[in-house]
Known about the structure:
The protein is of the alpha+beta class.
Amino acid sequence: MLTSSIVTVLLGLCAVGLVISLFAKAYIVDSKNDEMIRQAKQVNLAIQNQTEPSDGFKEQLRFFDQAFDSRIWIFDLNGNIVTTSSKDEVNVGKVVSTEVVNQVLHGEPAIWNQSEGFKEGMLSIAVPWGKDNDVYGGIVLHAPLKGMNETIAQLRETILWVTLLGIFFSFGVSSYLSWSITRPIQQIDKAAAKIAVGNYSERIQIDSKDEIGELATTINHMVEQLARVDLEKRQLNQLRHDFLANVSHELRTPLTAMQGFLEALQDGLIEEGAREKYYEILYNETLHMNRLVDDITDLMKLENKEIDLVWLAVDVQAMLSKLSFKFQPEAELRGTVIHCLVDENSPQAHADPDRLEQILNNLIKNAIKFTENGTIELKAMAIPSEGCVLITVTDTGIGISPEDQGLIWERFFKVERGRPVKHKGSSGLGLAIVRELVELHNGSIRVRSELGIGSAFEVRIPLYDSRQYVQPLSLGERA
């Protein structure tokens, strides 16, 4: 940019200077010619009544010489110089060129450059000397070219200084423009180099509103996106690692037990009468592994958006009554009673019946698991102002600590870890699946719990009557 700007300015100013110089020279010379022709005609007016040189004649010539600062020659019809305005009269008797004489005798002024007889070059013009149609000869005026050449030289010098000033100015402007462009580009280059090695904390600080500023903003936005993607990638890798570790841990326990029992049975270490008990343990461990695989499969389908819901109007009250009857025997084994509160309005939810039942199954199982010699209360009520059905599963169990309440939705997290009472048969995936299914229904879930008092899970599912006939998005559409 710097070189091209200087070269462009230099060529432009040189071309302009050359044209101005040529036109100025032609203008100065033409103006001088016109001026000298007028002066020569004034001399002719003064001497046109005198046909022979005399002392008075010469005095007039010297007067005009001083007035016009021009040497004056007078020549006759043959071109012989008869007198001059100079005192030494060194040119008297010499002959003016025939071409000039002929041009003057025809009544036309002649113009040429004269150097012979002078110390310096002269611009010379000749006009007829005479009155009316009588021509006695010619009048020649010589003006030094030095003054005109100096004027032209001064003009060219001025153009040169303007050119140098223009080059200096263009150098400054081009330097600033180059700096203003290359500096942010260097910043972008350095930032790109850091981004290339995975440093997404780098940001480009450019406040200009031009194209480079827009580029910097775009790159900063890109870096933010890359940082977010990189963070999500690391989190995903960590989740995958934790998931595999948890699955391995969950499978290792039943497999180890099954392997030990099978080896004991194979080696004949167990008596015939006790084998049925060990077969039952092996069977239960197999069921536990099967449930774990089913839960993992469901969770993976939910996270991969592979489950589509069948949207229907679901009678939540009837579903709770059915589940209450279903789980009552299991609850009685733990000395727990299930109460299903009846709502006269019998609210209907807009949901997938099978998946809603799966949600409630997991919540009720969870309540039974952690409640002994207590009560479990199932309740559903419509909230038209919120456009949802509120389903509550409340127990009087051991409760959940405040620090665990934010973790119970994580995969393989077990609230009973570290507690004195152990509950086998749990995979730690139930509540994670519940949350995914609730969100799939465009609903929400939260828990309220106190240690030693119990827990209450509140599920909000869209109310059927408040749908306004808008079909909710399926999982594939949401993805």
